[in-house]
Amino acid sequence: MKLFHLTAISLAMLLTVTACGGDKPSETTQEVKTETATETKTDTGIPAGIEKLIIQSPYMEFSVQSNRVFVVNHIKSESQLTPEQNACLLSLEGNPNYLEILEPYVKGILSDDDIKEADEFFASDAGRKFAEMMLKQMGAENLPPFVEPTDSEKAEIAKALLKPFFVKMKAKTDAMSEQEALDFMMSIVDKEKARCQIS
């Protein structure tokens, strides 16, 4: 079994959804800001430094969150962490490390249209509930209380699983050996250990 699935989207998402009918939300309150990135003076109430760490793509946000679960669990399995190191691993400051690896990987598999379709799904209520369910099953920390998807949302999730962004990612992930998947994730593990000063 592959401990670290590339974007965790295939392994986690697809396996669980097929089993449970899917659900969940990848928190994407930032999606609204995507079009207005030029207006730097708008008062968002978020400090500029933090705003730069927020991921604008709902799909990439989920990819980062799901991979963070695997990375943090792997680091915890081999190191005794202080509360500060644990908080560091879960912080937004790690987003650039994840994106540096995940963005080129995803863009090498999915077209712009595929990513747009994935963003639309993960920005929807059905997509957010699906993302939340997946993160919960992966063991993510500090999640809000889970809200069961409605029947129509379950139907949306089932439909999304047949779309190119799921099918292509699953095919790519299934083709990887366990060692390839581990090597892929270790590149993020190493960056995060260095950032949070974990030996």
UniProtKB/TrEMBL annotation:
Keyword Signal: yes
Domain of life, source organism: Bacteria
UniProt keyword list: Signal
Signal peptide: 1-21
PROSITE patterns according to UniProt: PROKAR_LIPOPROTEIN
Protein's name in the database: DUF2059 domain-containing protein
